[in-house]
Amino acid sequence: MAGKQINPIVKLVLEMGPIVLFFVGYLMLRDRAFMIGGTEYEGFILVTAGFIPLILLTTFLLWKLSGHISKMQVATAVLVVVFGGLTVWLNDDRFFKMKPTMIYTLFAAVLGFGLVRGQSYLQYVMEEMMPLKQEGWMILTRRVALFFAALAVLNEVIWRTQSTDMWVNFKTFGLTIGVFGFFMLQGGLFQKYAVEEND
């Protein structure tokens, strides 16, 4: 079952679906408050509570359909459960807003650790999608590690200084566009260090 191909549209829906539903749910409930068990919860808290089982379900479905999930997906799911759970349990939205900071800091630290050891851990995750020469992988890994570190700092600045509306928009659209734009800007590196078929 390992390595089984999955329909790209299904994969995209399972990966992006929870984020889109979180955004839609937030738009619907952001101005409402709910009394549950004698405690008042804002809409953001309830949407976060719904996001936790949703991300676990989609991660499970990805594993069931493809036969494997990446370590990044596992780490993301674990951090969603931990920080989302703290958000709901303590009725404090700050924990969930910290989650992207923790995720990107973790990724940057792991990639940085690999670089210190002279290895590209990014290569282990993405080699099948983008065959590059070793030098190219090392350069790309350095750039990705710095990019993740910058995203962690940016998330901290935004959630601590801006409104929840601003943070949700940043998390839903800003991060997605940022990651897409970053890899688009690496086109020159991909061309320069691409592994030719006859290499």
Summary, kept brief:
This protein is 76% helix and 4% strand. The protein contains eight helices and two strands; from the N terminus they run αββααααααα.
Structure description:
- The chain contains eight helices and two strands.
- The protein is mainly α and about 200 residues long.
- The protein folds into two domains: about 90 residues; about 110 residues.
- Strands 1-2 form a two-stranded antiparallel ribbon.
- Helix 4 runs antiparallel to helix 6, helix 6 packs antiparallel against helix 7 and helix 6 packs antiparallel against helix 8.
- The model has no long low-confidence stretch (mean pLDDT about 90).
How many β-strands, per DSSP?
Answer: 2
How large is the radius of gyration? 19 Å
Identify the overall geometry: globular
Structural class: mainly alpha
User: Can you list the strand order of the major beta sheet?
Assistant: 1-2
Q: Portion of residues in helices?
A: over 70%
Secondary-structure element sequence? HEEHHHHHHH
Helix segment tally: 8
Biggest beta sheet summary: 2 strands, antiparallel
What is the beta-strand fraction? under 5%
Segments where pLDDT lies below 50 for 5+ residues?
A: none
Distance N terminus to C terminus? 30 Å
Average pLDDT works out at: 90
Question: Domains counted in the coordinates: how many?
Answer: 2
Write the layout of secondary structure elements.
Layout: H1 8-29, E1 33-36, E2 39-42, H2 43-66, H3 71-90, H4 94-116, H5 121-126, H6 134-161, H7 164-184, H8 187-193
Antiparallel strand pairs: 1-2
Helix pairs in contact: 1-2, 2-3, 3-4, 4-6, 6-7, 6-8
Organism: Actibacterium atlanticum
Membrane topology: Multi-pass membrane protein
Subcellular location: Cell inner membrane
